[in-house]
Amino acid sequence: MEENRQQGRTRMIGVRLTPQEYLGIEKKWKQTTFGKLSDYLRSVIFGKPVTTLYRNQSADDLLAEMALLRQELNRIGVNFNQSVKKLHVLHETPQFMRWLTTHEVEKRTMLNKLDEINNRIHKFSERLWSQG
Fold first, then answer.
1. CB 113 within 8 A of CB 76
2. Where residue 105 falls among pLDDT bands split at 50, 70, 90?
3. Which of the four pLDDT bands, split at 50, 70 and 90, describes residue 2?
4. Bigger pLDDT: 45 or 115?
5. In sequence order, what are the beta bridge partners of 72?
6. How many angstroms separate the CA atoms of 75 and 31, rounded?
7. How far apart are CA 103 and CA 10, in angstroms?
8. How far is 42 from 31, CA to CA, in rounded Å?
9. Rounded distance, CA 67 to CA 61, Å?
10. What is the C-alpha to C-alpha distance for residues 130 and 132, in angstroms, rounded to an integer?
11. Is 17 exposed, middle or buried (0-12, 13-18, 19+ CB in 10 A)?
């Protein structure tokens, strides 16, 4: 096979497929580590090993959800940090009471979001454990 690479591939084979046949081949190819359909087909034709990928959809869903939750937590953390910085600046000023009210609303939002995150993690862990 290495000899063919050095010489260059000069011969072409044309095969006609139905749309369903092509979709079947394409589906199998996309489940492998091959970047090109031609490389996949050569390996299949010549009986070479084909490495397929395994995707755990539940784990993928969990990772996607965790990424969204992390972004939300980062936003909440930034807002909370800004509030604390304002507290140091506004201490003993007329704006302090207004800040305190805003801070309480943000604190409730943060605690509610933390409860939501905890519930989602619990649901995901139950789902993953029930599949195993």
1. yes
2. confident
3. low
4. 45
5. none
6. 36
7. 72
8. 16
9. 10
10. 6
11. exposed
Task: Locate 61 and state its tokens.
Answer: 């869903």
| Residue 40: other Cβ atoms inside 10 A | 21
What tens digit of pLDDT does each residue of 40-65 get?
999 999 999 888 876 666 777 777 78
| Residue 80: pLDDT over 80 | no
Tokens for 98?
């207004």
Q: Are 49 and 39 in contact (CB under 8 A)?
A: no
Distance CA 95, CA 105 (A): 16
> What's the pTM value of the predicted model, to 2 decimals?
0.41
User: In the structure encoding, which two tokens stand for residue 36, read together?
Assistant: 């090109």
Residue count of the chain, please give it: 132
